[in-house]
Amino acid sequence: MNNYEQNNRQFYAYENPTHTQAGPGFRQERVSGLAVASLIFGILALTASTRLAIIMNTTFLLVMGLIAVLLSISPIRKNARGKGMAIAGLILGIIAVARVMIFWGQIESLM
To answer: Residue 63 burial by CB count (10 A; 0-12/13-18/19+): exposed, middle or buried?
Structure first.
C-alpha cells in the first residue's frame, strides 16, 4: 500500500487506529475483594433491614451489617483500589445496623 492509500483508507467499525494495546509490562490493578464484599453485604443488609426485618431474625440482619462495616475497614486504611466501594459499604452497613437497632428497640418496647 502506498502513502495515498494509507491516508485515504476508510476504517471499519472494528478498527480503531488510535487505540493501542497494553505492552507486555502493563499490569492492571485489581479492585480489592474486601471492598466489593463490603459493598455487597452493605446493600444486602440495608435492603433486608427495610423489607424483611419483621420476617427475618433481627440478629441475622445485625450481623450482616456488622460484616459490611468490618470488611470495609481494611481497604479504607490501606488506601486500596476500590476505596469508594468500601466507603459505600461502610455507610450502608452503618445505616443497616442503625435501622435494626431502632427496629429492635421498638420491638422491646412493645413487650
So the answer is: middle
CA distance 63 to 38: 13
Does any domain span residue 75?
yes
C-alpha cell at 83: 476505596
- The verdict on residue 20 lying in a domain is no
Amino acid at 111: M
Q: Quote the CA–CA distance of 36 and 81 in Å, as a whole number.
A: 10
pLDDT digits (tens, 9 = 90+) for 20-60: 565 566 667 788 888 999 999 999 888 887 666 566 667 78
Model pTM score: 0.66
Instruction: Quote the number of domains for the chain.
Output: 1
